[in-house]
Write a structure and sequence with these properties.
Radius of gyration: 17 Å
Structural class: alpha/beta
Order of helices and strands: EEHEHHEHHEHEHEHEHHHHH
Number of domains: 1
Oligomer: single chain
Shape: globular
Strand order of the largest sheet: 4-3-8-7-5-6
C-alpha cells in the first residue's frame, strides 16, 4: 500500500509518478474494478462546492496530487502535502514501462484522428476506443453509454481522457457495474500530450510549477476563466485548512 497524506478532504497518495505507475501496473487484472483520480486546483475548488462529486473522489482506488502550485502553497501555509504525481506523467510512464507487448487497452476520449499518432508514440496495440459526444457532464445517458463500452471491452487498463468532472463520473459509473475488473485512469489531457495534439510545457517549467502558464498561453480563451477566475479559490481553501488544522 502507498502511504497517504490528507489535504482538503482527500487522502492523497504520497508517491511520485513512477511509483504511482508501478502501483497501477502491479494491480491484478482480476482485482475488482478501481479507478485513479488526479485532482488539481480546478478539481479541489469544484469538490468544495459539490459533495456528491467529492464522494466519487473518495471512492477512488488511488488519488494523486496533480498540482505543483497547490503543493507549494500548502507547504508555505505549514501543511504537509504529498509528492506530486501528475496524470500526464503517470500515463506516460505506464505506457512506456509497463505495457505488455500487444496488450489492448480501452480508451474513452481522444478524437479518432489522433489515435495513429498516439499508437506511434507509445507502441500500443490498436485500442478499443470510444469518443463520446460533447456535453457528457450533463447527460447521464451519455455517461451510461461510456460505461457500456467499457463493460463490453474489458481491459487491464482503461484510460479515460474526457476532462473533469465527466471523466470521474464515467469512472464511477463503470465501478457501479457488477463484475467489472481492471483499473481506469482519469487523466485529462494526458493522451493529448502523448499524441501531439497539444504541446506540453518544457520540463523546467513543469518542475517550477509553471505548466499552467504555458497552457494558458496556448489556449487563453478556454483556460483563462478557469485559471485566472475560478482556480485561485483553492488558496482560500488551503488557508482555511491551515487555520483550522483540517
Amino acid at each position: 500500500m502507498i502511504a497517504t497524506r490528507r489535504l482538503l478532504g482527500l487522502d492523497l497518495a504520497d508517491c511520485d509518478a513512477a511509483g504511482a505507475a508501478a502501483w497501477i501496473a502491479a494491480r491484478s487484472p482480476q482485482a475488482a474494478f478501481g479507478y485513479v483520480v488526479t485532482p488539481n486546483a480546478d478539481h479541489f475548488v469544484r469538490l468544495a462546492r459539490d459533495p456528491a462529486l467529492a464522494a466519487i473522489y473518495r471512492a477512488a482506488a488511488l488519488t494523486l496530487l496533480d498540482s505543483r502550485v497547490v503543493a507549494a502553497a500548502a507547504r508555505l501555509l505549514g501543511l504537509a502535502p504529498p509528492r506530486v504525481a501528475t496524470g500526464a506523467d503517470v500515463v506516460a510512464i505506464l505506457l512506456a514501462r509497463h505495457l505488455a507487448p500487444g496488450e489492448r487497452l480501452t480508451i474513452l476520449g481522444l478524437a479518432p484522428r489522433y489515435l495513429p499518432a498516439l499508437m506511434a508514440a507509445t507502441g500500443m496495440a490498436p485500442p478499443a476506443h470510444y469518443d463520446p459526444p460533447r456535453g457528457l457532464a450533463a447527460d447521464p445517458t451519455a455517461i451510461a453509454l461510456c460505461a457500456d463500452f467499457a463493460a463490453a471491452h474489458p481491459a487491464r487498463l482503461t484510460l479515460i481522457a474526457l476532462g473533469s468532472p465527466q471523466q470521474e463520473r464515467v469512472a464511477a459509473a463503470i465501478a457501479a457495474r457488477a463484475g467489472m475488473r481492471g483499473t481506469a485512469l482519469c487523466i485529462g489531457a494526458g493522451l493529448d500530450f502523448l499524441a501531439g495534439r497539444v504541446a506540453r510545457a518544457p520540463r523546467w517549467m513543469r518542475a517550477g510549477g509553471m505548466e499552467w502558464l504555458f497552457r494558458l498561453a496556448q489556449e487563453p480563451r478556454r483556460l483563462a476563466p478557469r485559471y485566472l477566475r475560478d482556480d485561485p479559490a483553492v488558496f482560500a481553501l488551503l488557508l482555511r485548512a491551515a487555520l483550522t488544522g483540517r
